[in-house]
Design brief:
Number of strands: 28
Largest sheet: 10 strands, mixed
Keywords: TPR repeat
CATH superfamily of the largest domain: Nucleic acid-binding proteins
CATH topology of the largest domain: OB fold (Dihydrolipoamide Acetyltransferase, E2P)
Shape: flat
Pfam family, one: SET
Bound molecules: S-adenosylmethionine
Number of helices: 19
InterPro entries: Gramillin-biosynth_MTr (IPR053209), SET_dom (IPR001214), SET_dom_sf (IPR046341), TPR-like_helical_dom_sf (IPR011990), TPR_rpt (IPR019734)
Structural class: alpha+beta
CATH class of the largest domain: Mainly Beta
Number of domains: 4
Protein name: SET-containing protein
Radius of gyration: 28 Å
Length: about 675
């Protein structure tokens, strides 16, 4: 399997494969066996002791040893979990759910239409793929384990740690991997944090270019007493922001806005300040939809100098949000407004020039690749560029679902598309996490970029306008039917659907810096990304395009002339070994390729394929041993003989117009060797 197509590749020995399969299967079977049985009341003390011990251990395990992360992990040290029994998130409002008691819980049951109110009574144990704690029901004093899978942090904040009272919507009561009964949260929106929200946000430094705040006060207050006026909420928001507590600042501005909106206040200075300040916080939090909406809501439209300055600032924030969303025409309009209001401000002119460059890239497909490559580094793997997509459209591809088709004739070597990633997690980033999954639907073990799934869920929760394009992608599980469900506690995203979409569409971005491939040989933190348009490209072993990564920009070029309306294809697996390729395509993407090459190779039969493979292995060994330009005569004679023998395994009639894959490497070597003679 090639590392450029897949987020990561792990080869398990049959014993490792069996052990993992067995462990995960046993848990699933145990769940099935106990399904519907009443919960057994647990001893509150034992749960608390367990969490205290585990918490201490996890603290020790988390002791700073950065080297550990880059060590080559063995498969048995990689996070493994079972998938394949997806369930939808709760889509009901809290007030439409019926309160339930802990004593009503049944094992391996989704308690639809119900809600549990609980208090956290223990510290949070943070593991790689999940966090857990002990919660208590106030009325009965009963305790239970509560576990949040994968999507544990929001903006550096541990979800379980962020409050002490939780509403668990439609609780799922099951068994943990260790076989302990547990309440389990898979969808972030199923856990509603009720009190003390946003107290533990980790500090972040706001981007300076975004501008300072109106009416900033010195940082004093940390907790917001009830009964604040809207102005006090604003001041508390500003104080929280000064302390870089972004979530608290956001909450304070929101409280202020709720107050003024509830009171039906006219659009006065205070309302505008609250919106403008919240726009700033949202920009830093990457909540771009709300940042843009807030900035526009803050506009006064007044032409006196003070208000022109304030509106200029708001347009700048709206422009930045539109730019980061890739909506460059809109961003241009906002920056132009900013320039009109405050012609002397340099930032407007600079951002306008930058936006015009993006629009040019979008329209022409002409990029300064030299500059882009020169600007890449470990700290800056994301490229400031637009996507060029005009050459293609999505259409039906019979037998393969949807596919990408050329809008016009494209020459060999020409750019087909150039696409910025929707979301990428680099191997060296904190969020990177590769897990092994056992899928009970097809009994297969796969490598899953779990960190990418988590990052995508977070991005969607923060930017509802982006939900449709991700949820439209192909995945085995249909989820909650691409609906945008907004409710009091936030947007509902089906985390299982994201998982399935990622497993069929994500791939490794390859190298950002020369000579170093992220993720290669590293099991637990490979780089992986999702490119929306490129996700529509179907596979063919005799494809007409090739991908190249420049940071998070993916450049797809034609490898031969492509006619208008022809389907664009890419090779998901370029292995010359038919049998290995067929297994990989089924295992990772769930289909059998029926291209003309596969049909021919299949018709050759296993014996001939085996013979060809042996000859190819021999040729590869020679090529690997001797550098072509320095090869001795004897090596060249041997290489020619091997190439002839491989060629003899191909039937001329069957392989008319088809590539002879096993010959490609040795032929290239021979051609290189010939140039030096
Ligand atoms: C990255 S998506 C490609 C777009 C997808 N066809 C769609 O409808 O959105 C990968 C999935 O497309 C399908 N696919 C891709 N190439 C195929 C092929 N050559 N034959 C059959 N199915 C294919 C498989 O279901 C695979 O899991």
């Amino acid at each position: 399997m090639s590392s450029t197509n897949q987020p990561n590749t792990i080869f398990l020995t049959p014993e490792e494969d069996e052990r993992m399969r067995k462990t995960l299967k046993i848990r699933l079977q145990k769940c099935q066996l106990l399904a519907g049985q009443p919960r057994v009341t647990s001893n509150p003390k034992s749960g608390l002791n367990q969490v205290a011990a585990a918490s201490l251990l996890s603290d020790i395990a988390a002791a700073p040893d950065r080297g550990l992360k880059s060590q080559k992990a063995r498969p048995d040290t990689v996070v493994a979990f079972a998938v394949g029994r997806p369930y939808p998130p709760c889509t009901l409002l809290l007030q439409d759910l019926q309160l339930m008691r802990m004593s009503d819980l049944r094992i391996e049951t989704h308690h639809r239409g119900r809600v549990l109110t609980l208090r956290r009574v223990a510290p949070v144990v943070k593991l790689v793929a999940l966090s857990w704690t002990v919660v208590q029901e106030e009325s009965s004093g009963e305790t239970e384990r509560l576990e949040v899978s994968l999507h544990k942090s929001r903006h550096g904040q541990e979800l379980l740690e962020s409050g002490s009272i939780f509403e668990v919507k439609e609780p799922y009561f099951t068994l943990s991997d260790q076989g302990d009964p547990t309440l389990r949260i898979d969808h972030p929106s199923d856990l509603v944090v009720c009190k003390d929200v946003f107290r533990t946000d980790s500090p972040r430094s706001p981007t300076e270019e975004l501008g300072d705040l109106e009416g900033a006060v010195s940082a004093t207050a940390h907790t917001s007493p009830a009964g604040n006026t809207a102005r006090e909420w604003k001041e508390e928001g500003n104080a929280a922001l000064k302390q870089q507590n972004l979530l608290l600042a956001h909450e304070n501005y929101t409280q202020g806005l709720q107050l003024v909106t509830r009171d039906g206040a006219a659009k006065e200075d205070l309302v505008c300040d609250l919106f403008r300040n919240r726009a700033y916080v949202n920009l830093i939090l990457n909540r771009l939809d709300e940042a843009r909406a807030d900035a526009l809501a803050s506009l006064t439209g007044l032409e006196d100098q003070k208000n022109k300055e304030l509106d200029s600032k708001a347009y700048f924030r709206a422009g930045c949000a539109a730019y980061d969303l890739g909506e460059f025409q809109e961003a241009k309009r906002f920056f132009e407004e900013q320039q009109r209001l405050t012609p002397d401000r340099k930032d407007a002119a600079a951002r306008l020039r930058q936006t015009e460059l993006r629009i040019q890239e979008q329209d022409t497909g002409v990029y300064d690749f030299k500059k882009i490559k020169a600007g890449l580094s470990v700290g800056r793997p994301r490229v400031d560029a637009a996507s060029f997509t005009r050459n293609v459209r999505v259409g039906e591809s019979p037998g393969r679902g949807r596919g990408l088709f050329a809008n016009r004739d494209i020459d060999s070597g020409e750019i087909i598309i150039c696409e910025k990633t929707f979301c990428v997690v680099w191997g060296h980033e904190e969020e990177a996490l590769t897990a092994m999954t056992y899928d009970s639907r097809d009994d297969r073990i796969r490598v899953s970029p779990a960190g990418l799934c988590k990052a995508i869920v977070q991005k969607l929760l923060d930017n509802p306008s982006q939900v449709g394009k991700v949820m439209d992608l192909y995945g085995d599980y249909q989820g909650i039917d691409k609906q945008l469900i907004k409710e009091a506690s936030g947007l509902v995203i089906d985390a299982f659907q994201v998982h399935d979409i990622v497993s069929r569409n994500a791939f490794g971005p390859g190298s950002v810096y020369s000579g170093h491939h992220y993720g290669e040989g590293e099991f637990n933190n490979a780089s992986a990304g999702l490119w929306i348009l490129a996700s529509y490209i179907n596979h063919s072993c005799i494809s007409n395009s090739e991908k190249e990564s420049m940071g998070d920009l993916m450049v797809l070029r034609a490898t031969r002339p492509i006619s208008a309306n022809e389907e664009i294809t890419h090779s998901y697996d370029a292995s010359s070994d038919y049998d290995a390729r067929t297994v990989a395509l089924m295992n990772t993407w769930g289909f059998t390729c029926t291209c003309t090459l596969c049909i021919a190779e299949k018709a050759d039969g296993p014996a001939l394929r085996k013979k060809r493979q042996e000859l190819e292995n021999e040729a590869n060994a020679l090529v690997g041993r001797d550098i072509a330009v320095r090869a001795k005569r004897l090596s060249i004679i041997k290489a020619r003989r091997l190439a002839r023998s491989i060629n003899d395994t191909y039937d001329d009639e069957r392989y008319k117009d088809l590539p002879r894959m096993a010959l490609l490497r040795i032929q290239k070597w021979l051609a290189e060797a010939a140039t030096t003679r």
